[in-house]
Amino acid sequence: MLSNRQENILKFIVEEYIKSAKPISSHQICDKLECSSATIRNEMVYLEELKLLEKNHFASGRIPSEKGYKYYVENLMQPKDMTGEDMLKLQTIFHNNTLDLNDTIKRSIEIVSEITNYTTVVLGSGAKDNRLKKVEVVPLEDNKILTMVITDKGFVEHKNLFLPKNVSTEEVKKTVDLINKLVVGTPLDEISEKLEYSVKPIIGKYVRQHELIYNTFYDAFSEITNKESDVHFVGRSNFLKQPEFSDIEKIKEIFSKFEDANCIREIAEDKNGINVYVGSDSELSDEVSVVKTHYNIDGEEGTIAIIGPKRMEYDRVVSLLDYIKSNIGGDHEEE
Amino acid sequence: MLSNRQENILKFIVEEYIKSAKPISSHQICDKLECSSATIRNEMVYLEELKLLEKNHFASGRIPSEKGYKYYVENLMQPKDMTGEDMLKLQTIFHNNTLDLNDTIKRSIEIVSEITNYTTVVLGSGAKDNRLKKVEVVPLEDNKILTMVITDKGFVEHKNLFLPKNVSTEEVKKTVDLINKLVVGTPLDEISEKLEYSVKPIIGKYVRQHELIYNTFYDAFSEITNKESDVHFVGRSNFLKQPEFSDIEKIKEIFSKFEDANCIREIAEDKNGINVYVGSDSELSDEVSVVKTHYNIDGEEGTIAIIGPKRMEYDRVVSLLDYIKSNIGGDHEEE
DNA sequence: CTTTAGCACTTCCATTATATGACTGCTAAA
DNA sequence: TTTAGCAGTCATATAATGGAAGTGCTAAAG
Predict the structure, then answer these.
(1) pLDDT reported for residue A269
(2) Mind giving me the DSSP string for B6-50?
């Protein structure tokens, strides 16, 4: 258990280091807390024994360790009031009624990325658990047709297909009718299976060239349902602005993680509320922290995450995320 | 006019520098061309006077200048045979019949980025010149409806709308019918105008709550048509692998250009064939080169670009792009 | 028992000096 | 026209130096 003074020292060091990115000396602290630098030094030795603080070298000031950041986030951090400026910028998004949920979220994290200089991500949940609402085809010029798969949650996936020359649009329409009659309401991830045992056996009765058409649709479906959930990244290059990433090797490490979308998807499983993952807990790199939250608005779900250096303004980021979350929820109910 | 030997020297320097990223000395050259280093040095002085070569400092070897690269690309470069390995990787994409044009292109530039370690981009032309094929609404649960705008080229844009409580789906459908009757066939960029003078005046006769519904659609349309053409970037972080970008400031410059999608869009206007833009001609940065080409397959058009350091394997990149271009053209006609 | 002043000690960092290696430019001879 | 050879220039790596920053420890004071 830490004494009050020890907590104050830790809090000061974390917050000051977040601002300056430079190790904090005992002298800097004794100006704030009313005691001498020697006293502070004694306390710092204790905090270092608890692995809450670290030194770069023998005679450097202290910096927070990963454990120190965590202690700060869990015990010392106070919710930060948002500045009017930040609020104003976000409100122009929330009050724009022409935006749907996805766009609102995307725009707002763009703002967040811009004002904080961190990297932000939205991770749609994709359409895996959606159910098929309908399939539709629209004939375009020549032998080109547009195929659309529409889900109950309003997710649309489309694909332009080129019909083999000996297949008429009529035949395709019959297939589509059959699919709509038999498969609508099925969750997307069971579609392939259902096509195979409920459509395939009877399609031959109604449609000529059924093999070709069936295969085309089967392929289109499996491609659509395998489609990875969409990842919307903003402000990756903000990492370049952080002094602790002036080393090109660290940048490489982070960016290669970013290019691998799976890695981002892994950070999605989540508890309720807003969660902070410091350093190694982030699953991305020991050098970064992730603040994230899950949303579920009328069945559309996803994850919003803010990624920055461990030396991140946790209080500000948490309150921004909180603000966004409370605003996207009630968007359409206001009117 | 350069002598044969001078051209050989320039060619050797460019190609060797592309491989090694290190200034080329006269000694390296005289092993290849059969003469002494002193002779080479004399020639190099001449090439430097013509601004085809540069030095980093007094006693360094030579590196190609921007003008030198251009001379190389226009006069000295020979088409490079593709390696079997590169071809094989691309063919797995081209022979996959379930992919439509966009996906084929995206996948193939992903391959290119991977095998070359350069950055690649596809720039769809968007749907600006497309004509409206139809508008469709699908009622989802509660007061949520899915609105889709479909164009004659198979471009689909969709948006989830929340209906105000006092508006029924029937009313919306009437509006959609009206739009389909009156506006179909109009180029997307003229839609707003046409809505205003041909739909708005009469909608009041058929639809109750017409103001609300009309405005909702009007907004949705203008948002959809203003939507920027899609930009698909791959392998941005490949720049980090290039030794000339070990300086974080240069990386910042490039990456900030990449974040600004407009900047990419500017590189789109194009002559026929495959074009090489070295350094300042690239419009991105003096430090990079862009190799790009425009495609137009059955009305779907766009630009493919490969972005790398000036010290780029021009011959290889050109042949890759050539190969892709000749393969995406005839994709669906093979069957 | 806690706090403080003071000093010795450690490490970093920027500066300077030095040596080395890599090339070129030039001159004079082939 | 080509070549050999040498002096001159610059980058790079390494080592030496002096200071600045900040700690740990000790002993005295509160």
Answers:
(1) 66
(2) HHHHHHHHHHHHHHH-SPBPHHHHHHHTTS-HHHHHHHHHHHHHT
